Amino acid sequence: MLQKLEESKKDVEKKVKERTEELNKLNETLEELVKEKTNENIRQLETLQQQSKLASMGEMIGAIAHQWRQPLNEISIAVQNLKYDYEDGLITKEYLDDFIKSTKKVIQFMSDTIDDFRNFYRVDKTQERFSVKEAIQRVLSIQKAQLQNNNIKVTLLGEDFEVVGYKNELQQVILNLINNAKDVLLERNISDAKITIVLKNHTVIVRDNGGGITPEVIDRVFEPYFTTKEQGKGTGMGLYMSKMMIEENMNAKLSVKNTNEGAEFRIDFDE
């Protein structure tokens, strides 16, 4: 009897050991799968971020092209006038001083635009306390000419406030929201087109008068690769990445709703 019990005990211990080894192997396999999937998700996210950033850079380069058109025309006209005035014998020291001063001013404006662009895409993963209004004004300074050329009026209202986070990422989000509004206003040929940005109670509101988002798609606008634009005119990544940057890196929430006139995007920061 004792021998049978001993044999039974050994048999149970053997089976427990075998099952334990199987569970350990399964656990190791699961850990490897989780690690592999995590790395795969990280790679996919990095790819999505890069795609979004490249699309954003394309928009910004287009804005700079608009921004430079007027100062380049000013320099071209000034140089042409200099040639004619020289031929007419009108060149004096005072004339040259004024010419140099005005030309330097235009060149400095163009240089500042490049600085804004470089700072906008500076790789900086250090959080800082910054003025939200100043960050938005930086974006508007680059977008101003492009919006004016398309007869779109932009207004920035409300009281400034400060947040702690990544300034460049907030600027990219604001740029995406402005460009989305601009595209809708142009596609729908809205007269008296307007984009209004309001700062209120630690909230940034970006609204337009483009008629709003159709009820069928408003719940999908933050999905990756979702776009209502024609093929080749949108990646469907702008709003998705904007939501990720705001909610994962800025301790805030990005949402959208329709108003009587158009769409309204809200960035609500924790106070």
TrEMBL record:
Which terms are listed as keywords in the entry?
Coiled coil, Kinase, Phosphoprotein, Transferase
- Xref: CDD domains: HisKA (cd00082)
Q: What is this protein called?
A: histidine kinase
Cross-referenced Gene3D superfamilies: 1.10.287.130, Histidine kinase-like ATPase, C-terminal domain
Is-annotated flag, keyword Amino-acid biosynthesis? no
- GO molecular function terms here? phosphorelay sensor kinase activity
Every Histidine kinase domain range: 63-271
Quote the InterPro entries the UniProt record gives: HATPase_C_sf, HATPase_dom, His_kinase_dom, HisK_dim/P_dom, HisK_dim/P_sf, Sig_transdc_His_kin-like_C
Q: Which residues form a coiled coil?
A: 2-43
PANTHER family hit by this protein: SENSOR HISTIDINE KINASE (PTHR43065), TWO-COMPONENT SENSOR PPRA (PTHR43065:SF42)
Reaction(s) the record says it catalyses: ATP + protein L-histidine = ADP + protein N-phospho-L-histidine
This protein's record includes keyword rRNA processing? no
* EC id: 2.7.13.3
Q: Which organism is it from?
A: Sulfurimonas sediminis
